[in-house]
Amino acid sequence: MKKEYRAMYNAMYDKLAPLKSDEELLSSVLSSRKGNITMKHENKSRKLFSKAVVIPLAAALALGATAVGAVAVYNRNVAEEYANVLQKPDGFIEQEYKTADGEEVNLNAVALSNGLYDELNIEINRTFEYEDFTLEFPGAVCDGRDILIMYNMTFKKDLDCLRAEHQNFWLWGPNATNDDDGLHGGTRANNGIMSEVDGKKVYSGYVDYSGVENCGESLNLHFEEISSSTSNRVLGIKLYNVDIDVDLDIPLTGDFSKFNKTVEADTAQHVDLLGWGEWDVESVDISSLLITFNVKTDGDLPAPDGDIFKEGMMVFPINVTMKDGSTLELGSRAIYRYGDDSETKTAWFMAVLNYPLDVDNVQSVQFASAVIDIDGSATTIEIPEVYSKYDENGRLVER
After folding, report:
1. How would you write 110-145 as a 3-class SS string?
2. Distance between terminal CA atoms of the chain?
3. Residues 108, 88, 333, 145, CA torsion sign
4. Distances, alpha carbon 14 to alpha carbons 77, 90, 148, in Å
5. Which residue, among 136, 131, 138, has the nearest Cα to 156 in the 3D structure?
6. What is the per-residue pLDDT for 310?
7. Would you call 68 helix, strand, or coil by DSSP?
8. What secondary structure letter does DSSP report for 22?
């Protein structure tokens, strides 16, 4: 499991950018972000957000947002902390969100400004003391299918590992203690951020799981180790590993129905994925953090061993269109997990969202050439000829 997680992690934040004034931030409304701005810890005036206004993340943090509780180690807004940790580095355009006029906006800021982080929040408020650090779990973002469990490490000492640039700290454990086998981990590159509060270094990160719907009324997790991601022989920095004993019982009794929709296509749409076979798209499960496409085939499965992907990444479009005409282009790398059943000749493809999505505002979703509207009406559209990147056996020949 550790190797599976670590293979997906990438370096995140390059550097902190200076704060802009409120006027400068608001002037960036509905425009492309030019910098990754992390807020300093200071008191901020609270103002109400209009859901009709899309603002950059930095502006949202500067103005404040409705909170469900405070993170103890920060004495700050929970939603702001979630948004800060999930924020991608400069130049990260893997999933693009644009208005109907084509203006690029920050979906993370949208989720913060419209209160979606607050709605998805599950309070945990557990703290564990260790010799080198305090480990705090303020809460989790959960849509009933996917969950991001947030944690803060407040260091009591100036450890050698803290001298490494772009250092991350990851939680490891023997999966969940639930009897269910439907819980999956590691669908996101969950790097975190380092900051300084009251003279102490604080690392904020998260660990994520999908398949929460299989866990009944609670998610029981056990973590047994924390490890650093970076070493440096020149600086004499070794990898940092500490055994821990953390049990979390996270309640799943909230009403998640508003964050989940299953849309059955009125007519299954045929898609030809070449190296991955020909399928009929029958339905789509839409939630705030995940989109799952359910497909079926009349022919043989793409490979005897069930390896739908074969080699390389898929290159067909995966898009979400909102009711206001804005679009979210997920890109081929959105597909992080898949599965198939040789007996029923069915399969599913899971697309992971970088930031929470307002499910109530979704108008339609696109999987390759198939488009399914929220009312179930389905159509097939023309898409660019992108399969030329693969040979007849589905092998990647160019990037």
Report:
1. HHHHCCHHHHHEEEEEEEEECCCEEEEEEEEEECCC
2. 28
3. negative
4. 24, 8, 23
5. 131
6. 45
7. coil
8. H
The tokens describing 323, both together, are: 């009711």
Task: Tell the burial category of 123 from Cβ atoms under 10 Å away from its Cβ (0-12, 13-18, 19+).
Answer: middle
What is the identity of the amino acid at 252?
L
> Distance (Å, rounded) from C-alpha 293 to C-alpha 358?
18
Q: Which amino acid is at 398?
A: E
Beta carbons within 8 Å of 24's beta carbon, 6+ residues apart: none
pLDDT, tens only, 199-218: 999 999 999 998 899 888 99
Q: DSSP per residue over 156-169, as a string? A: SS--GGGGSTT--E
> Rounded to whole angstroms, how far apart are CA atoms 63 and 42?
12
CA-to-CA dists, residue 76 to 21, 71, 84, 132, 295, angstroms: 20, 6, 12, 23, 44
Distances (CA, A) of 128 to 5, 136, 200, 244: 24, 6, 17, 9
Write out the two tokens for 72: 């103890």
Q: Is residue 66 a contact partner of residue 89, using CB atoms and an 8 Å limit? A: no
The DSSP line for 252-312 is --S--GGGEEEEEEEEEEEEE-GGG-EEEEEEEEEESSEEEEEEE-SS--SSTT--TT-SS
Q: What is the mean pLDDT of the chain?
A: 76
How far apart (Å, rounded) are the C-alpha atoms in residues 126 and 135? 8
Tally the residues of the chain: 399
How would DSSP label each residue in 364-398? EEEETTEEEETTS-EEE------GGGB-TTS-B--
Choose among 275, 250, 276, 269: nearest CA to 364.
Answer: 269
Write out the H or E segment, with its range, that includes residue 174. Answer: none
SS3 state at 200: strand
List the beta bridge partners of residue 196: 201
- In the chain, the percentage of residues whose pLDDT exceeds 70 is 67
pLDDT-above-90 percentage for the chain: 45
Residue 276: pLDDT band with limits 50, 70, 90:
low
Q: What's the pLDDT at 177?
A: 55
